[in-house]
Protein 1
Amino acid sequence: MSALDPIDRRLVVETQAGLPLVAEPYAELGRRLGISADAVMTRLERLAASGAIRRIGVIPNHYALGYRANAMTVWDVDDRAVSELGKLVGGMACVTHCYRRPRRPPLWPYNLFAMVHARDRAEVDGMTVAIGRVLGGHARAHDVLYSTRILKKTGLRLAA
Amino acid sequence: MDAVDRRIVDALQGGFPICPRPYAAAAQRIGLSEDELIARLAALSAGGTISRFGPLWDVERLGGAVTLAAIAVPAERFDDVAALVNAHPEVAHNYAREHALNMWFVVSAESRAEIDRVLAAIAAETGLEVLDMPKSEEYFLGLRLAA
């Protein structure tokens, strides 16, 4: 990854499976990288400010937290309206991720993806209705794809 | 998961401090000791309640590339195809979904060229068409799950 200097890269490698669970995790990372704790913190601040780190915290396992109904709601939204509407949908409390993606007709006519997580499918139905209301007449069709099994889930995997 | 675990998951989905003793600072905010917070995060990770604790890196901002891909897999071949797809280290997540397109996976790699190579390899290995749907826009506001 070209934007990364070698130390940033090693910082990614050392933290992609998680932050060390010790009292001074940044000092521990510094020991592994041969730099000071202050240098680690300065780099992390910079990477967080640039958006390379989205957040530092718990990466949840939805199923284990009781979210049994995890769905990708997908919508065929008018191209002229999708950017504005995507922002509104992305801002809804029930939507955790929202993306615009290319359609792949004929199998896949949808260009707006909004992920929702709920305790059960009835709750997802309510969320789908709410999203549909925001999209109004600009959505021509939609579908709801429930995940039935996690086949694989890992963090970012940069080779060391 | 007890009430304290829930408080940890609710309070620590982001905003973990960058300071010399971050667990102590975060623990104070939620009324725990540093040791207890560290022990509970370790137990939550080991038990699979959380996937991990730490930075969520943005592959694209790091100069890499990512896409979402989907395959319509015949039911009788589902597990074999899942094994072929998952064998690629660039496949970060893979979910079974209820749809004709029943396998959805995220590929993240160091470049778009490498993604193309992985998707072509998966198509060749499985003999199935792989739909490539890289995001063209993101409406991102962070994760807010109540535990």
Note: The longest helix of chain B spans residues 112-126.
Protein 2
Amino acid sequence: MAKYLMLKHYTMAPEYMQYTPMDQWTPAEVDAHMKFMNDFVDRLKDAGECVDSQALSPEGTFVRFDGEGKPPVTDGPFPETKDLIAGWMAIDVDSYERALELAGELSAAPGAGGEPIREWLELRPFMGETSTTTE
Amino acid sequence: MHDEELRDLVPIVIGILGRRGADFSTAEDAVQDALIEAFRTWSDDEPRDMKGWLIRVAWHRFLDRRRVENARTAREEHAFALSTDAATTSADDTVDLYFLCAHLDLSPASAVALTLRAVGGLTTRQIAEAYLVPDSTMAQRISRAKRTRAGRRLNRPGNVSAVLTVLYLVFNEGYSGDVDLAAEAIRLTRVLADSIDHPEVSGLLALMLIHHARREARFSADGGLITLGEQDRSRWDAQLIAEGIGILQTALARDELGEFQVQAAIAALHADAQRVEDTDWPQIVEWYDELLKLHDSPIASLNRAVAIGEAEGPAAGLAELRRLDDSLPRYFAVEAHLRERAGEADVAAKLYAKAAGKASNLAERDHLVRQAARLNSEH
């Protein structure tokens, strides 16, 4: 088994994100999309492949250390940031091929006009544990 | 298996071990061990005397744990033994446990976890699942909380408002996993209300019952949020509402007003309206005025602006809103609603989309996106 992160993005370069924003869909299209997402997670759970599924708020804060005894410096939110993470699903699957297959299905979530949104998802393998049989 | 009966027994057995001289921390661990043992073995063979079984197994586990600890070192004396006064009843022991677990020394998250385990009789795993954290994280949170409390004596009477805050937090968490935290909070508040006579305990219980009565109507079949105004009121649980209102009226008659009674009164006014247009908004505004007198909270001010918008029209609501800080949670959702009612659909659609970007949970975000989509597709 291998774990993968499927990252969803709020904003990406335009060539990766061409679909109409959700508030411009009809309410029925919004409902269909929500239902697809919920059903997708349910199917992952049923298949024993779901590790985690989380959504993030678009606005965050940048924070860094600013020296001993001083409070950390904060900045942001940066609305101009090009790439924001909207959320993720972590899956535990038998193979890379299976991970690709699932990411493909998720990217086919229905959008405006019921058409698949064809959103680009970023598939990232987790770093695994050192296997005891490596030596 | 009788889960609830078993869970009712947990604080009682912790109290009994305390009377036999056990310190709280070890007694609580021992009863947790016994509880897990009960879950493991009772499905095949449930004992006739559940309480006797639990006391016996917990006492053995306590002695085991004590032996291990004594062998390790002669650790500091666990000064924190529960009352050994044989004249008090087990109900008093249970109330002591509420105060102990919700003590102000503890962070809210720790107080919640400890209360659910020691008073609620839930296992660490169930609590971890309900709060979506790993078991080991929750186990650590609970043992740290117990270390914080070790060695401190309880000053009775304890701090009732700290206990109520914890129960309210549990109630608001709703439910995920196999534990219904809202129902659990109600169960624990009922036990407390039976044990101590305090109008705010009644106020909180009434508030929970009235909110709980509307739960079935709050979500559509596919899980979408349905706001109060849109709910099918025939799906509200009239019996729970009646019980809540009865408890509230008795509490209000004592004339010792508190925040929970006021919030329950507002919930009761909503529950009283057969149709949304029957809602007595002017009276709701008055109760918000009372609430703000008791505690000047920006959230209450925001809700008051909503009520004024309904009682006196959207322009009055918007005027109230402008006096508040727009970084408040749900500020833009409220503004969107008022603008829509004022006939400004375009502005409202943009505000709904903006509010969706600031929503703190998915159900609310999805609802706000849907509102924006509805307005945008109407023209």
Note: Chain A is about 25% helix and 25% strand.
